[in-house]
Amino acid sequence: MKISGAELFVKALKAEGVEHLFGFPGGVVIPVFDTLYSEPDIKVILTRHEQGAVHAADGYARSTGRTGVCLVTSGPGATNTVTGIATANFDSVPIVCFTGQVSRSMIGNDAFQEADIVGITRPITKHNYLVLDRKDLGRILKEAFTIANSGRPGPVLVDLPKDVILEKGDDEYPAKVSIRGYNPILKGHPNQIKKAAGVLKKAKKPLFYVGGGIHIAGAADVFRRAVKKTGVPVIHSLMGIGAIPGDDPLCLGMLGMHGSYIANMAVSHADLLFAIGNRFDDRATGDLAKFAPDANIVHIDQDPVSISRNVPVEVPIVGDAGQVLEQLLPLLDAPSIEDWIEQIEGWRSEHPLQIQVRGEIAPEIAAVEEPAAKKQDASQPSIGHLRPDRVIRAICRKFPDAIIATEVGQNQMWASQFFTFRHPRSMLTSGGLGTMGYGFPAAIGAQIANPDKRVIDIAGDGSIQMNIQELATAVQNKLPVIVAILNNGYLGMVRQWQELFFHRRYSSTCLMTGDGCPPECKGPGDHCPVYHPDFVKLAEAYGAVGLRVARDSDIEGALAEAGRITDRPIFIDFLVEREFNVFPMVAPGAGNTEMIFSEGEES
Amino acid sequence: MTHVLSMLVENHQGVLSRIAGLFSGRGYNLESITAGVTTDPQITRITLVCKGDDNVIDQIKKQLNKLIDIIKVNDLSPLPSLHRELALIKVLAKPNLRGEIFQVADVFRARVLDVGIDSMVLEVTGSSDKIDNFIAVLQPYVIREVARSGLISMERGKKQNSTQPPKRKGASEKLNADYKVSIA
After folding, report:
1. Which of B17, B70, B179 should we substitute to test contact with A (largest number of A Cβ atoms within 10 Å)?
2. Is the pTM of this model over 0.90?
3. How far off is chain A from B76, nearest CA to CA, in Å?
4. CATH for B2-80+163-178 (3.30.70.260, 1.10.10.10, 3.40.50.1360, 3.40.50.720)
5. Percentages helix, strand, coil for chain B, rounded to the nearest 5?
6. Which residue of the set A126, A162, A205, A398 is catalytic?
7. Residue B51: what are its φ and ψ, rounded to 5°?
8. Catalytic: which of A14, A106, A113, A380?
9. Which residues of chain A have pLDDT under 50?
10. Which three-class secondary structure string do you get for A485-521?
């Protein structure tokens, strides 16, 4: 039977089990949306910006492991996806992004809404296609889905010229394709696995170091069994959060720039680093010359490129983390590491900063006095005095099993430090690219994929404004996403760097700056102008719920109220201490043991 | 160190751009690249010459292998292999100098493709070194134009029966067993 390209596209989506498609229409893709209009099995989620569509597909994919799908139009529609695609590419998220393209005869003629999106996205996709022949369409669609969610997953973009969409042709959608240049290795080499088990057994100071690859491979379960069997302590990267429960005594927390003291000390003294699914990113390793100086490294990764790139590896194992760990598990033995555990416990007591405490909460250092009421209009945001760590601990107590999305910056680091993640795939964050504006649309995608779970975006007042238009998407789809805005009136992470490394010159980082501000501000105070926007009014204008919390004692109440709402998004504007910093911190370029614990220590 | 990579790639549009983009995007050093179809019209052979230390070359090979359109990457540098480049050189040649230039060309086994009123076009093939030398020798005659093809290369045939594949050298050796990268 002859069917149109659009009909074949829909057939492909159904064959792939796609239930939700995130998109935004436009001229050349009208026929595709037209075909989808009468398709009850595929729900189109109309976002308010194409970037939101890609991030939503990303959150959908990260929280489930299923492929996220988006569909946008040519030209600006396509270029608006670029940040979302690059985000997904950096963090290995399976997405297939369909873009419309002008008709084949017009390609290259600078036609209206034409962009060479295949050229633009070549370096930020796992692979991409421009469909130039209707008879290739079925194969290309199948290849796109196959490539996106196999091996090391990633985004695949398929550019569909309008006349290919319309052209009648073959209705075949292949059940399988083989691609001769693409054969991911899944099983580990048996000799290497034997070797890895051997070095672990002999190690005196071993450490598991896990990254996002654990979640991608769905290997958290087998990994937890490996930890149980060996008793070897675990550190993780930002992306590896949740591989092991954050309150497990063997979980030492995150390493790196804003990692825990104990994780950074452990990695710097270990004699064996057993790495699974990581890239040895610079934010995790710090100064490479000082990274794990005494350690031999075993590295399991799906992508050979990640192995021995930044850090030389003694035992490389290419393969799927889940399959390799299954192969490895029977060979594992518990090494005798009592001294090592004792040394680690020593570090734990050395720096009893709340930040190291992963299990039950931060020492609630005596309750801070409530600040005197400010002279500002009560309905307007005023200078905040909440502590972000307490806000996040309260969220963690109230919603311990929530899926947490974050934006990027201080909010992201505080979320990673103070929320105790117990489940794999429960943290959605732009780890590699560091995309502000990622969290909220990702939370929307995750909420759609997980209707029975609480999804919370921990945001900053800067980041949330980068994709705030998606409030409309959340409201219209009745998604009870909670957005906890840690509002300090600054682009906080940059401000923190300015405070520590640029003599407190807050150039372009204050979001309150306005009339009456001196050319060089010496810091926040009562003189600061009123903050805009008013997030409560803004949420209400969209039909969402807006709450504001200015006092410690109101945190729990606001969260309880948010918890009762199940049919609308909730914005909670937490007015936090304006100059609260993320500590400990390893200064850029320093080694992991050279941690700064407070403002006074800047080097 | 300079390496010669011989690759089989899908004859898809954009494949050269993927490779060139990989080199520019990641700051690798690409010296020359040539492409031509093989006996299978769907497959193109690309020979590229790149420079870098062992780690960089290792990354280049792995990154190339990651490209879906690349079927096979073969590093010829450690293998007994043949390397050839072709150059067309137009030199200023007044009639009184033609004989001399003919002699120089003869020494380098270059062919004369064209003789004009005051110029000649020479064709020479050989290793890149030989072509460099030929150009250097022609310099005094004033070179008008040079067109070089870039290197094309091929592994030599086996000289004795052996079941062992030729051994590769370098830091990456121990990794190879695990990679799809690899030797023909």
Report:
1. B179
2. yes
3. 19
4. 3.30.70.260
5. 30, 35, 30
6. A162
7. -130, 145
8. A113
9. 354-381, 602-603
10. EEECCECHHHHHHHHHHCCCCCCCCECCCCCCCCCCC
